[in-house]
Specification:
It is built from six helices and nine strands. By secondary structure, it is of the alpha/beta class. Bound molecules: the ligand O=C1O[C@H](COP(=O)(O)O)[C@@H](O)[C@H](O)[C@H]1O. The site of ligand LXAUTJHC has 15 residues, from α2 and β4. The ligand O=C1O[C@H](COP(=O)(O)O)[C@@H](O)[C@H](O)[C@H]1O binds next to α2 and β4. This is 6-phosphogluconolactonase.
Length: 250
């Protein structure tokens, strides 16, 4: 079962970030109250680190038992650990290095300095295996409590690009991406199948350059026009926007 998209507009990017951070803290606390731990999927890009910086500055951040949060990435640029263009590096600077996470629950996507070297397909398989190991019997990936997704001006989410053949990979939770239209060209991404296994899916979008992508995605465009439109949460699908990103909505 999936939930219909709901749009929430905040006046500015900072308000969007701060309000979404408050929402995230509450969702993680609620998940932990229900089952002791939480699975959180992070995103890169402009909003991916903005929301984490807002969590870092929040007086409520320590309401979360961070040692019981599993951290995953919706996608990663295939670059060595610590590279400033890696989503993980940006997310670490914004929040992750300042909170008491359990390193065993931080599920980094291997880069070219990892055990598979520059074999991105093997790195994606390794990440898929890690997802499967954390999943229930017969499942490809865990059920994520919160899935954070940025959206590109072209309608991409994670590293699933509209019209790109690699967005159609099925039967596995993570896949390599070659010739990404946005640099760097080589990436690892969760597939649509894995992205569909989230209770709460939140698109975080700011800026007028995203307004058209938001409009067509919320309207339910096909995969040739919007990858974002193909992803919905089981309980909740929220489009969390600033006023500029919402400017083409009717
Ligand atoms: O390359 C990426 O881009 C998207 C969107 O980034 P933005 O800067 O346009 O907001 C991001 O969600 C994805 O994780 C990242 O790898």
């Amino acid at each position: 079962m999936t939930s219909a998209p709901v749009v929430l507009v905040h006046a500015t990017k900072q308000l969007l970030s701060d309000a979404s951070a408050a929402r995230l803290v509450t969702a993680l606390v609620d998940a932990q109250a229900a089952k002791g731990q939480a699975h959180l999927v992070l995103t890169g890009g402009s909003m991916g680190s903005a929301i984490l910086a807002s969590v870092a500055a929040s007086g409520a951040r320590d309401a979360v038992d961070w040692s019981q949060v599993h951290v995953w990435w919706g996608d990663e640029r295939f670059l060595p650990a610590g590279d400033p263009e890696r989503n993980e590096t940006q997310n670490r600077e914004a929040l992750l290095d300042a909170i008491p996470l359990d390193p065993a629950k931080v599920h980094s996507v291997p880069g070219p300095d990892g055990p598979d070297g520059d074999d991105v397909a093997a790195a994606a398989r390794r990440y898929a295996d890690e997802l499967a190991a954390a999943a229930g019997a017969g499942e490809e990936s865990p059920v994520f409590d919160v899935l954070l997704l940025g959206v590109g001006p072209d309608g991409h989410v994670a590293s699933l690009f509209p019209g790109h053949p690699d967005q159609l990979v099925a039967g596995v939770a993570a896949a390599p991406v070659h010739d990404s239209p946005k640099p760097p060209p080589t990436r690892v991404t969760l597939t649509f199948e894995a992205l569909a296994r989230a209770e709460r899916t939140w698109f975080l979008v700011a800026g007028a350059d995203k307004a058209h992508a938001v409009k067509v995605s919320v309207a339910g465009a096909g995969p040739e026009e919007s990858s974002a439109a193909q992803v919905k949460g089981r309980q909740e699908t929220l489009w969390l926007l600033d006023a500029d990103a919402a400017s083409e909505l009717g």
